[in-house]
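It is worth pausing here to work through a concrete case rather than discussing structure prediction in the abstract. The textbook approach is simple: state the sequence, then state the predicted structure, then interpret. We follow exactly that order.
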Amino acid sequence: SIGLIGDPNDVSARTVGATIIVGGGQDVDEVYQWMIEKAGGGDFVVLRASGTDAYNSYIYELGSINSVETLLIDSRTLAN
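Step two, the predicted structure:
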């Protein structure tokens, strides 16, 4: 983990599986709000191959969510 915002403690949330793949363009608030709805007040995980945890505060401020954590997977070792 390269960063976490919100409550680090686990919560019980009713979630719906969903995935978004983004990159190379402008951020679209509605995409992240849709994912926040699917998280049901639980945790939101951002997977990155490069970069920082800058999405944490952006996503956290868009809706009601327990936490946002960024995992940086930038090597074969971390991917396994």
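Step three, interpretation. Residues 3-7+17-79 form one domain. The chain has a mean pLDDT of 92.
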